[in-house]
């Protein structure tokens, strides 16, 4: 692997593996897409995390089928190919940079647990709602029977779509059904158990999983394929029912 520097901003350096050119990958478009949005997204993520900021970050474009990884400190790897859409690459950087911020914040969001994986995906949905489907996983949980409780429990892996699908839906439930602010949800975290129930209880919510799962079962009955109800990419079908008194007057 021979990494070549493509360009830099104040806080980011973007490199690409020289092998990508021989593979016919449009490295110029991909790397430029990262450079165009990295500083903008860094600032937006910082606002969600209570104004904390990461240090200098290196983004490496390497050969692969998609997705990304990071070292939780200062380096991100994006796996790209000839099929990678340059317009979507900032989404990968957001998810990985979000995990670096989780580690920097230290409030119990574990990047390689279901709660942290869910948050990284939801961050993409918040910053790029028109491309929410790229990070969606809620239907993986909705289509299980029975539906496991991944609110009182946390899965110690980021590879189980069912667990972080449940968690992604619940995070959106907190924000768009119960109207908690994202900085408050993220700032609360779960430092003792890493569970979303701990997050909910710290926000003042009792019986979180029961209320959430009941709401989901009402809208999407257990045992019914939810693709018949909503598009498969939606992790945020909220709100349902009457808008709470503290809710906004307009939803977009």
Lateral strand order in the biggest sheet: 1-2-3-5-4
**H/E element order:** EEHHEEEHHHHHHH
How many separate helices? 9
Tell the overall outline: globular
Uncertain residue ranges: none
Query: How large a portion of the residues is in β-strands, by DSSP E?
Result: 5-15%
Structural class: alpha/beta
Rg estimate, integer Å: 19 Å
Report on this structure.
The chain is an alpha/beta fold. It has 9 helices and 5 strands; from the N terminus they run ββααβββααααααα. It has helices at 19-22, 27-48, 89-105, 114-127, 138-142, 161-177, 182-188, 196-202, 208-219, and strands at residues 3-8, 12-17, 57-63, 68-70, 75-80. It has a 5-stranded mixed β-sheet. Helix 2 packs parallel to helix 3 (89-105) and helix 3 crosses helix 4 (114-127).
Keywords:
252 residues, alpha/beta, 42% helix
What's the SSE blueprint?
Layout: E1 3-8, E2 12-17, H1 19-22, H2 27-48, E3 57-63, E4 68-70, E5 75-80, H3 89-105, H4 114-127, H5 138-142, H6 161-177, H7 182-188, H8 196-202, H9 208-219
Helix pairs in contact: 2-3, 3-4, 4-6
């Amino acid at each position: 692997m021979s990494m070549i520097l493509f360009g830099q901003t104040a806080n980011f350096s973007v490199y690409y593996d020289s092998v990508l050119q021989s593979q016919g990958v449009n490295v110029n478009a991909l790397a430029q897409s990262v450079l165009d949005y990295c500083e903008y997204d860094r600032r937006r993520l910082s606002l969600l995390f209570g104004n904390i900021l990461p240090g200098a970050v290196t983004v490496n474009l390497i050969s692969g089928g998609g997705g990304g990884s990071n070292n939780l400190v200062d380096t991100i790897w994006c796996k790209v190919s000839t099929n990678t859409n340059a317009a979507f690459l900032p989404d990968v950087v957001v998810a990985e940079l979000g995990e670096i911020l989780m580690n920097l914040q230290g409030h119990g969001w574990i990047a390689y647990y279901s709660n942290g994986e869910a948050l990284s995906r939801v961050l993409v949905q918040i910053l790029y709602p028109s491309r929410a489907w790229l990070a969606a996983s809620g239907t993986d949980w909705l289509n299980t029977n029975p539906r496991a409780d991944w609110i009182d429990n946390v899965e110690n892996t980021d590879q189980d779509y069912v667990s972080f699908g449940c968690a992604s839906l619940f995070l959106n439930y907190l924000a768009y059904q119960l109207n908690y602010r994202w900085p408050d949800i993220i700032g609360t975290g779960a430092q003792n158990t890493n569970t979303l129930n701990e997050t909910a209880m710290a926000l003042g919510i009792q019986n979180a999983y029961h209320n959430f799962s009941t709401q989901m079962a009402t809208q999407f009955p257990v045992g019914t394929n939810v693709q018949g109800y909503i598009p498969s990419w939606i992790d945020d079908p909220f709100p349902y029912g009457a808008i709470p008194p503290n809710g906004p007057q307009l939803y977009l």
